[in-house]
């Protein structure tokens, strides 16, 4: 994307909490400077800068950017000790993400091992608010038709959206599946694991041979709080479908279920 064109992209900035004066303008400048690395036209950008009110949070500033890149949403989120640091990290991570998307589009479906890893990225993810488990509630429930795709496309979607996991229907096995990261690479969990039935893919991934536990939402919340996990993939015993209960950065829980 040409620099001149990037200057015309509409960018909306929302600032919440006590931050230094002029942060909205700084946020717009930093995000706009990364737009020239987009492989397709950026139609709109939305930036949020939020300061957490709890003084115990080590990196209280969360910065998030959502870009509409010719109809595809690209999302990046980071945390910093001060707003300018968070926005500098946001800009660098956004450039890195856009460059990788451009390279992958040129190359096609092939995803090389550790292609998406960027030195230092995990350390800049926002911290979870340390809310006691007995105070945690499911405050958001999203239900949608799961995308049918192979592992390569699932990796691409998860990384473009900067998610910790991605719930989808694996193309070859037709199984509800969740893709996530481990220190050793990508891992896949399925409702009824059949690794041999996965559609052809190029991204190295290990497959859990254990089916998810059958739980109610209440039981899943109790297990998530007890084990301190970032998310829990389980089979909803009441609906007979998969579900993911995840920990939000405000310490509460969110629930994702497939649409019927």
Rg calc: 19 Å
CATH class of the largest domain: Alpha Beta
Number of helices: 5
Q: Give the domain tally.
A: 2
User: How many distinct beta strands?
Assistant: 14
And the CATH topology of the largest domain?
A: SHC Adaptor Protein
Tell me the strand order in the biggest sheet.
5-14-13-12-11
Helix content: 10-25%
Strand proportion: 25-35%
Topology at a glance:
Layout: H1 3-6, E1 11-16, H2 23-34, E2 42-51, E3 61-69, E4 72-80, H3 83-107, E5 138-144, E6 148-149, H4 151-160, E7 165-170, E8 176-182, E9 185-190, E10 205-207, E11 214-215, H5 217-227, E12 231-236, E13 241-247, E14 253-258
Parallel strand pairs: 1-2, 5-14, 6-7, 9-10, 11-12
Antiparallel strand pairs: 2-3, 3-4, 7-8, 8-9, 12-13, 13-14
Helix pairs in contact: 2-3
Protein name: HPF/RaiA family ribosome-associated protein
Pfam family, one: Ribosom_S30AE_C
GO molecular function: ribosomal small subunit binding
Key descriptive features of the protein:
5 helices; SHC Adaptor Protein; globular; five-stranded mixed β-sheet; alpha/beta; 260 residues
Question: How would you sum up this structure, described in words?
Answer:
The chain is of the alpha/beta class and 260 residues long. It has two domains: 3-124, 2-Layer Sandwich (Double Stranded RNA Binding Domain), CATH 3.30.160.100; 133-258, SHC Adaptor Protein (2-Layer Sandwich). It is 24% helix and 33% strand. The strands form three sheets. Strands 5-14-13-12-11 form a five-stranded mixed sheet. It has a five-stranded mixed sheet with strand order 6-7-8-9-10. α4 links the parallel β6 and β7. α2 packs parallel to α3. This is HPF/RaiA family ribosome-associated protein.
């Amino acid at each position: 994307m040409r620099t001149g064109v990037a200057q015309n992209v509409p960018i909306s900035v929302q600032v919440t909490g006590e931050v230094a004066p002029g942060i909205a303008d700084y946020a717009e400048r930093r995000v706009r400077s990364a737009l020239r690395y987009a492989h397709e036209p950026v139609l709109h950008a939305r930036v949020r800068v939020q300061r957490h009110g709890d003084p115990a949070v080590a990196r209280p500033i969360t910065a998030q950017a959502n870009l509409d890149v010719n109809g595809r949403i690209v999302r990046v989120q980071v945390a910093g000790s001060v707003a300018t640091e968070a926005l500098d990290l946001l800009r660098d991570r956004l450039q890195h993400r856009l460059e990788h998307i451009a390279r992958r589009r040129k190359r096609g479906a092939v995803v090389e091992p550790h292609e998406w890893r960027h030195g230092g990225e995990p350390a800049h993810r926002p911290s979870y608010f340390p809310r006691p488990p007995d105070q945690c509630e499911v405050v958001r429930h999203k239900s949608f038709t799961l995308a049918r795709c192979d592992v390569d496309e699932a990796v691409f979607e998860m990384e473009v959206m900067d998610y910790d996991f991605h719930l989808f229907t694996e193309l070859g096995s037709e199984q509800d599946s969740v893709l996530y990261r481990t220190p050793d690479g990508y891992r896949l969990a399925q409702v009824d694991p059949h690794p041999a039935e996965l559609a052809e893919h190029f991204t190295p991934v290990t497959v859990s041979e254990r089916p998810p536990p059958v739980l109610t939402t209440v039981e899943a919340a109790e297990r998530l709080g007890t084990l301190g996990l970032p998310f829990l993939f389980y089979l909803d015993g009441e609906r007979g479908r998969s579900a993911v209960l995840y920990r939000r950065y405000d310490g509460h829980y969110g629930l994702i279920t497939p649409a019927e």
